């Protein structure tokens, strides 16, 4: 007899509802839940990988300790006791400690509620995380304009007539900072009602393929496009629509003079898009029909990431589309995170490299290796890595790797010996994903409908297994005891979730939410900005000084095209997720996906044929990779997906190692970052590409 269990897929931001059919502990099938209020039956090929993750033969089941003789299994109590003793000893030596938090932690509400507790017990100040490799510019712009790092506006796709996507590929990524499961179908529905999708991207992506128009843009130059659009929109008048005008502060008057300092033809030349295309885009966005412009990784992990995210908000504001049906709207989910966590902060942090921005108390990950290797008493000697793989995810992975080798204590919470955790002294593996419960914690506030969904654990915990939150909480207790401190009695994640749900405007209890296994639908997004602004004067801050000043800095970069080199960007594939789904045989099967995409003109110039091995060299390093010649990438640009490079010795994910690929981040450069936010610049890396020389062994 099989049983059907309702779950939310925890892998990506789409948070699809799935139906898991179980026969005892065996997964029989995983299907989309047609009755799920948000995903309506949609799933992607990664959903089946939940079974592969659960049953992964290479997954660690017990704490591991690295010894001179190799990895040794420990019981939990011994692992916690040894780690706690070492943390206390290092604290006694005034050693600096730090955390690196990876992306999967954000998909685990329970861990999210407890990991701060562990960090406080360790006494680690500041955090490195995947956020400064990703979306920190969004948080910065939201804090500056709306007064809260998490007060985000998302395109209201179900009622929109035009969506312009700049530097995002939701057909592959399933949406980011925009929880929009079944994106493809929602686009079809928009097109069926006469709406249009436009994509601006150096590559003709999977999303560009279903779009009504694709405009190639030179990597790292979108600021010119946004300023150009804004200039054209404001040339028709800068009076804001009623409803928005009253919400905007006096700095709005500074926007038009700023954009008017630029010449549209210069902007067009800089970004490689014809001035007429920019004019037409502006006219369409401002035509009065409900429309939205949205920008993601491609315009976030770049030198002017914060400015870009700000300009996007300004375009939606200027065209009257902010906080309007079919434009961009602020979700009001079942659990109102914005109302219950602090506004966030913008500060600075002193690093070996000098003063860097610190948004939300993050230390920019571009400085990670520096801080691990600096030669003063501020060197990080104790490191906790929580569900992260910075060797493959952060720029200059080789240097990160070398830096990790010098730690006095490194603890990784991970279920594999990865490129990163292989350097740990202890690895603490969580239970399988089906043994965890789930709530749409960080993603309700980004969803295309007001909603929330809770799913209980599908399987009972295996004997001796622990969820991530239990590991964090029990280790924190052990550390506090070792330091001779009092161990507080904390609420469990479920208790915290229940309290937060009840304190939210929807006011439901966890039990009430749990009784709706298809999710709780609170309806379409609603205009609400007037009540939700969290700036002190309750106004939208249209033109904060640091952003205006950074536009002046941008002006100085116009036309500084690095000659002679190609510009390297990344890419995502629907059957992959950052570095960690490559151990699933069904996801990695088929032709090698870790290839260098190159335009036929650039390949010909270099004497390269499809499938040839090329040597790709940047300031940081070199890789050899098979090339894929395609007209889907613009001339002058090449692309390698990130998250590969599993050839490192000693990793435990065998299937991943068999499909090793090379790491894009062995080429990216930590010296390149967004000055306002410290976010890494991961696209637009200057590289040379040549046929790889056959290495002839010396006699
Ligand atoms: N060049 C380039 N680099 C990039 C990007 C890019 O576009 N280009 N993208 C960046 C982005 S957006 C991000 S978010 C980062 C991601 O950067 P990271 O978060 O550092 O890397 P991941 O690949 O997500 O690694 C997650 C690790 O957590 C483990 N893991 C998975 N699930 C769980 C779990 O439930 N519990 C625990 N304890 N561990 C788990 C996996 O085994 C894996 O080792 O990469 C960034 N790096
Ligand atoms: N299948 C899959 N899904 C994922 C992930 C994954 O690895 N695989 N990762 C998850 C994570 S952590 C995140 S953050 C999201 C990311 O979600 P998205 O941002 O939607 O995904 P990307 O594929 O990184 O899209 C960035 C796009 O920007 C383009 N681009 C690069 N440089 C530039 C530029 O300078 N200007 C412009 N205009 N475009 C540029 C790239 O060609 C690419 O198409 O995806 C999430 N979902
Ligand atoms: S789109 Fe994301 S949430 Fe939905 S099934 Fe795929 S991986 Fe899971
Ligand atoms: Mo990300």
From TrEMBL:
PROSITE patterns: 4FE4S_MOW_BIS_MGD
Record keywords: Iron, Iron-sulfur, Metal-binding
Gene3D superfamilies tied to this protein: 2.40.40.20, 3.30.200.210, 3.40.50.740, Dimethylsulfoxide Reductase, domain 2
GO molecular function: iron-sulfur cluster binding; metal ion binding; molybdopterin cofactor binding; oxidoreductase activity
SUPFAM superfamilies assigned: ADC-like, Formate dehydrogenase/DMSO reductase, domains 1-3
Boundaries of every 4Fe-4S Mo/W bis-MGD-type domain copy: 2-58
PANTHER family attached to this UniProt entry: OXIDOREDUCTASE YYAE-RELATED, TRIMETHYLAMINE-N-OXIDE REDUCTASE
UniProt record similarity statement: Belongs to the prokaryotic molybdopterin-containing oxidoreductase family.
Name by which UniProt lists this protein: Molybdopterin-dependent oxidoreductase
């Amino acid at each position: 007899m099989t049983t059907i269990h309702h779950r939310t897929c925890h892998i990506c931001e789409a948070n699809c509802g799935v139906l898991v059919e179980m026969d005892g502990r065996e997964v029989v099938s995983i299907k989309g839940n047609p009755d799920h209020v948000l995903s309506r039956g949609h799933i992607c090929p990664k959903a089946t990988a939940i079974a592969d993750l659960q049953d992964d033969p290479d997954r660690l089941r017990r704490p591991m300790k690295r010894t001179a003789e190799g990895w040794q299994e420990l019981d939990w109590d011994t692992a916690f006791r040894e780690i706690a003793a070492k943390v206390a000893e290092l604290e006694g030596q005034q050693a600096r400690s730090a955390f690196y938090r990876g992306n999967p932690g954000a998909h685990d509400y329970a861990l999210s509620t407890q990991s701060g507790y562990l960090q406080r017990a360790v006494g680690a100040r500041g955090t490195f995380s995947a956020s400064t490799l990703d979306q920190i510019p969004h948080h910065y712009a939201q804090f500056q304009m709306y007064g809260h790092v998490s007060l985000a506006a998302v395109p209201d796709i179900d009622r929109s007539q035009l969506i312009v996507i700049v530097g995002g590929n939701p057909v592959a990524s399933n949406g980011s900072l925009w929880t929009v499961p079944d994106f493809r179908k929602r686009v079809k529905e928009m097109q069926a009602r006469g709406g249009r999708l436009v994509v601006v991207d150096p590559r003709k992506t999977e999303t560009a393929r279903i779009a009504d128009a694709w405009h190639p843009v030179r990597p790292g130059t979108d600021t010119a496009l946004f300023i150009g659009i804004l200039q054209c929109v404001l040339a028709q008048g800068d009076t804001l629509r009623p409803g928005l005008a009253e919400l905007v502060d006096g700095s709005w008057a500074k926007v038009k003079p700023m954009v008017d300092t630029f010449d549209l033809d210069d902007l067009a030349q800089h970004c490689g898009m014809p001035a007429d295309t920019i004019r037409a885009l502006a006219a369409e966005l401002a035509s009065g029909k409900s429309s939205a412009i949205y920008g993601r990784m491609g315009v976030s992990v770049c030198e002017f990431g914060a400015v870009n995210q700000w300009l996007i908000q300004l375009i939606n504001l200027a065209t009257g589309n902010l906080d309007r049906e079919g434009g961009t709207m602020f979700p009001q989910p079942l659990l109102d995170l914005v109302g219950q966590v602090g506004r966030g902060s913008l500060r600075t942090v002193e690093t070996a490299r000098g003063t860097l921005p610190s948004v939300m108390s993050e230390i920019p990950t571009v400085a990670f290796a520096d801080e691990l290797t600096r030669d003063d008493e501020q060197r990080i000697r104790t490191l906790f890595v929580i569900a992260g793989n910075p060797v493959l995810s952060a720029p200059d992975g080789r240097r990160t790797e070398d830096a990790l080798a010098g730690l006095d204590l490194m603890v990784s919470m991970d279920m594999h010996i990865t490129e990163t955790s292989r350097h740990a002294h202890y690895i603490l593996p969580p239970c399988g994903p089906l043994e965890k419960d789930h709530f749409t914690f960080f993603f309700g506030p980004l969803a295309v409908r007001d909603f929330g969904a809770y799913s209980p654990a599908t399987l009972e915990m295996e004997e001796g297994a622990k969820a991530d939150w239990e590991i964090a909480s029990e280790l924190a207790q052990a550390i506090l005891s070792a330091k001779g401190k009092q161990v507080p009695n904390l609420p469990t994640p479920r208790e915290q979730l229940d309290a937060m749900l009840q304190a939210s405007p929807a006011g439901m209890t966890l039990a009430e939410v749990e009784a709706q296994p298809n999710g709780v639908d609170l309806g379409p997004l609603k205009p609400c900005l007037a009540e939700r602004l969290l700036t002190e004067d309750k106004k939208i801050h249209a033109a904060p000084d640091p952003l205006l000043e950074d536009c002046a800095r941008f002006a100085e970069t116009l036309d500084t095209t690095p000659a002679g080199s190609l510009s390297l960007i990344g890419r995502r594939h629907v059957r992959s997720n950052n570095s960690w789904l490559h151990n699933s045989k069904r996801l990695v099967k088929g032709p090698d996906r870790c290839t260098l995409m190159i335009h036929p003109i650039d390949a010909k110039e270099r004497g390269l044929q499809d499938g040839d091995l090329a040597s790709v060299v940047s300031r940081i390093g070199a890789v050899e990779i098979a090339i894929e010649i395609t007209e889907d990438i613009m001339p002058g640009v090449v692309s390698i997906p990130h998250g590969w490079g599993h050839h490192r010795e000693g990793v435990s994910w065998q299937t991943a190692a068999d499909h090793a690929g090379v790491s894009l981040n062995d080429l990216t450069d930590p010296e390149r970052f967004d000055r306002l936010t410290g976010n890494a610049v991961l696209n637009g890396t200057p590289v040379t590409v040549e046929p790889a020389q056959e290495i002839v062994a010396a006699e």
